[in-house]
Amino acid sequence: MGGKIMGMPCEVNSILKLKQSQGYPEKLIIGEQYQAVKEDYRIIPVDVPIPLVNNDWVAHADIIIRKLTWENKQTLVIFEIDRIYDRPFNVKA
Known about the structure:
CATH 2.40.240.20
C-alpha cells in the first residue's frame, strides 16, 4: 500500500515578523492598514491582537490581521496597527 501523501506545507505563527522588504511599515500609525507578503503558507490568527516584530525580533506594536490570502506559495496579509508599545522589547533572548 505504498502511496504518496499530498499535503500543503504551512507554518503556524502567533506573531508577525517582517523585514522592510516584506512590508514592515516605515511609520506605525494606530488604525492604519498595511500590506505585507511572507514566503510560503502561514497560519496566523485573524481578528485578534498579535505582536508585530522587526527583523531583529524587537516588538513595537500589536496588530490585527484583517485579511490573509494564500497564493503562489506566499501569504499576503493586510493588517491594522492596534496598539503601539511605550517601550519596544526583544521577544527572543
